[in-house]
Description:
Radius of gyration: 26 Å
CATH class: Mainly Alpha
CATH topology: MetI-like fold
Largest sheet: none
Strand content: under 5%
CATH architecture: Orthogonal Bundle
Amino acid sequence: xxxxxxQHSDIxxxxxxxxxxxxxxxxxxxxxxxxxxxxKADRPAMAALFIIVGFIVFVMVGALFINTPKxxxxxxxxxxxxxxxxxxWLGADSGGRSVAKxxxxxxxxxxxxxxxxxxxxxxxxxxxxxxxxxxxxxxxxGMQRVYDFMMMLPMTMMIIVLVTIIxxxxxxxxxxxxxxxxxxxxxxxxxxxxxxxxEKDYVAASRTSGTSHWKIIFREIMPNISSLIIVDCTLxxxxxxxxxxxxxxxxxxxxxxxxxxxxxxxxxxxxxNITQYWWTWLPAALEIIILCLAISYVGQVLRRAADASQRQxxxx
Length: 316
């Protein structure tokens, strides 16, 4: 009878432990819930998120219904047509081309380049920084010498030279050219944080237990610096919009017959356009300002959510 009582006690203890774990798992909010709660607590960031998502979806879908070659044809009868008319919502430029349609297609091109550049350069820079900071020693020394060499190159001049010598290029080609040079900042930032993380106890314990280096790098260290990665990628996206815009403004970005935010802002080079024909450049300038501010708001919320998720994981 005593044995039956002990067995019944053991089963009850196991059930209680299981129920306790299930209750704790239910009480612990998921990462998605943490992010959503952070957005609900920050109304400006919520509005910024809707602005970014809504605008990107609008320009990506809207550009599919616009015939770009036909849109770029010259129409002298619509020379600097005034805005807010049924045919020209935002007016027309010096070639009689619709500013509204150019803004949609140009936004699609500029945002597409920024997204592609952010994905490629951030992915390469994060991997480079993680590997360099984790292994340290001669591997870190060699990788940092490559970094120093890339930093010595005049980046803007090199991009202009590459764009000049390539006979036919498009948005994809331009994105890859940018990606050659725009990974250095991310790699240096990730490396500095990885150097500190590699000295912590959980990394030493994983090494002692025989965990492979790649699992430690990508399954343990990288999640612990996710807040830094999120903020860097978000700010890089906002910066990369300006990269294409700046070079197109100087005439070394996308070809002249390919609309972009930079080519539209370049209309401000003419003093008459600044004062008399403001609609040829002002909408693109306002769009860049609003997008960059909205992306900054969203990035700060994602950083707070990542920090909260990491603190929750440490507490568990």
